[in-house]
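We were asked to recover a plausible sequence for a given structure. The inputs and outputs are reproduced exactly as logged, with field labels preserved.

PROBLEM: sequence recovery
POSITIONS: 280
GIVEN STRUCTURE:
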């Protein structure tokens, strides 16, 4: 694994973290065990008060590819923007402290980018894990046009976690940084901008792993019912920015999807009622 000395790293993995002692060591080890030929791991700590900083220091002293800072910030988006500004690699990926990559994928990602034009967004698949160590879903976001992300609220289409996608750092010169006012929907806000500006390539391979952990801000947001409202609010913002014909297309296709769902639910109720009737 190359260090930050000598030639510049080809890929920068950025990890924003705050009080993440439960998972930060596994995150750091996951990047080390990639055995990537040319990387740096940038860890942006928001002023942790647990053992997070102690663990980061321990590994940073042993591995020159690890760079880190610890200071108060304005939230996750702000931390991510700090990481981008520090990044020396042309390729960027974000790895949250409680997520992880599949084994030995980073060199493969670098190979893909050798044939991709500037401002590319490279997307793979992602396993979704529950709190008990079970895979509950595999997200395969094969359709990545802005219209696709806006259909049916982006359900089962949009990449769910940054561990499954990689992109040129230069893309931010076109679409701007992460919105520091976004604390929950920063990923979908970024993707809605990125897919309209980037060269997109999807690869049907599992690259990322997302742990849906009880007690995290995302799961709390889902549990209290505000997640969907925030999510659809972002999608509606970008729908309104589309040209009139695309807005009409999204509206008609969403209407068709809702009609199919309604008919299926109606048919399911009828089948259940018929089954009960037949028993008598």
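RECOVERED SEQUENCE:
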């Amino acid at each position: 694994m190359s260090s930050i000395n000598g030639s510049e790293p080809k890929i920068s993995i950025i990890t924003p973290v705050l009080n993440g002692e439960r998972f930060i060591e596994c995150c750091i080890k996951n990047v080390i065990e990639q055995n990537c030929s040319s990387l740096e791991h940038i860890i942006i700590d928001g002023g942790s008060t647990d053992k997070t900083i102690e663990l980061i220091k321990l590994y940073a002293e042993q591995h020159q590819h690890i760079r880190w800072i610890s200071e108060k910030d304005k939230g996750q988006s702000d931390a991510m923007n700090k990481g981008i500004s520090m990044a020396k690699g042309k390729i960027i990926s974000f790895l949250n402290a409680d997520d992880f990559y599949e084994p030995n994928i980073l060199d493969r990602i670098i190979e893909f980018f050798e044939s991709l034009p500037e401002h590319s967004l490279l997307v793979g698949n992602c396993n979704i894990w529950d709190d008990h160590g079970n895979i509950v879903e595999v997200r395969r976001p094969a359709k990545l046009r802005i219209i696709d992300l806006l259909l049916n609220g982006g359900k089962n289409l949009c990449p769910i976690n940054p561990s499954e996608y990689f992109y040129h750092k230069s893309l931010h010169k076109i679409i701007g940084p992460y919105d520091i006012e976004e604390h929950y929907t920063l990923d979908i806000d970024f993707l809605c901008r990125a897919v309209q500006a980037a060269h997109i390539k999807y690869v049907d391979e599992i690259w990322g792993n997302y742990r849906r952990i009880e007690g995290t801000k995302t799961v709390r947001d889902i549990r209290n019912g505000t997640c969907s409202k925030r999510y659809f609010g972002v999608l509606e913002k970008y729908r309104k920015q589309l040209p009139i014909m695309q807005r009409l297309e999204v509206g008609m296709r969403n209407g068709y999807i809702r009609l199919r769902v309604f008919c299926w639910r109606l048919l399911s109720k009828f089948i259940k009622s018929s089954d009960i009737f037949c028993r008598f």
